[in-house]
Amino acid sequence: MKNTIVLFVELKIAAKNKYICEITEKLFENNISVAIFAEEAKTIGQLDNLMWTWKQESFIPHSIVVENTANTDPVLLSSSADILPETEAILLFDPLPISALEKYKLVFDFAEVYHSDKKTASRARFKEMRESDKFDLHFTQLGAILAKKSINLETVG
What we know:
alpha/beta, Rossmann fold, 7-stranded parallel β-sheet, 7 strands, 24% strand
């Protein structure tokens, strides 16, 4: 049985930081813990700052993970694949090996169709996941995710 749902979210413009904040807010509203992974600490810092300022009326409690320690914040940001926190969901600013994704119930990856190289890389990741037969894969639009009143980890796809 495929336990991990992977949603490939189509990005038609280069606004991944904003999309990550919007999805994170939706997960937070539904009491789903989430990790956010980006390869560079600079990107994690940008996401950290954006979560404080991207919406006047919104606050997403979060912290940056720099070592393997217990953390109770519902949103955890990390630039180290070696210390990714145990959460229910993960948002991938940058890709991870598929073996690192199996521990999550829900994975958000991005199909960056606005750039040919990124589009090709997204398709290759989707194909690799499909061929592994370990994931319940779905291709979706950001609006479809945000339009849901609630997110249920068992039927989100």
